[in-house]
Amino acid sequence: MKNIGRRIATIVVALFVILGGSFSTSFVQSFAVVSKSTVIIHYQKGKNDSKDWNIWFFPEGKEGKAYPFNGEDAFGKIATITVEGAIKKAGFIVRTDAWEKDGGDRTITLSGGEGEVWVKSGDEKTYSEPPDGEYRETPAYKNIDVTVHYNRYDGQYDGWNLWAWPEHGKGKAIPFTEKDAFGKVAKMKWNDLQNVHKVGMILRKSVKGNEWEQKEFGDRFITRFQEDGSAEVWIAQGQERVFYDASDLDISPKIISSNIDSFHRMTVETNIPFDTEKHGLSLSGKVRIQKVVPVNGQKVTNKVYVYTKKEWDLTKTYKISKKNFGTAKASIGKVVRSKAFDQRFFYKGKDLGNTYSKKKTSFKLWAPTAAQAELIMYDHWNDKKGHVRKMKRGEHGTWKAEVKGNQAGRYYTYKVNVAGGSNEAVDPYAKAVSVNGDKGAIIDIAKTNPTHFTKRMPSFSPQKAVIYELHVRDASIHPKSGIKHKGKYLGVAQENTTGPKGVKTGLNHIKDLGVTHVQLLPIYDYQTVDETKLTKPQYNWGYDPKNYNAPEGSYSTNPYKPAVRIKELKTMVKGLHHNNMRVIMDVVYNHMFSAQQSSFHKLVPGYYFRYNEDGTLSNGTGVGNDTASERKMMSKFIVDSVSYWAKEYNLDGFRFDLMGILDVKTMNAVRKSLNKIDPSIIVLGEGWDLNTPLDPNVKANQKNAKKMENIAHFNDQLRDGLKGSVFENVDKGFVNGQSHKEAAIKEGIKAGIDYPSSIASYQQPTQVISYVEAHDNLTLWDKLTLTNPTASVTERKQMHKLASSIVLTSEGISFIHAGQEFMRTKDGDHNSYKSSDAVNQLDWQRAYEFQAENNYVKGLIALRKTQPLLTLSTAKAIRKSVSFIQAPANTVVYSLRGENQKDLLVIHNANRQAVTVTLPTKGTWRVLVDGKQAGTKTLATVKGKQVSVSAISTFVLQRK
Question: Which InterPro entries did the record assign (predicted)?
Answer without folding.
Answer: Carb-bd-like_fold, CBM41_pullulanase, GH, GH13_cat_dom, Glyco_hydro_13_N, Glyco_hydro_b, Ig-like_fold, Ig_E-set
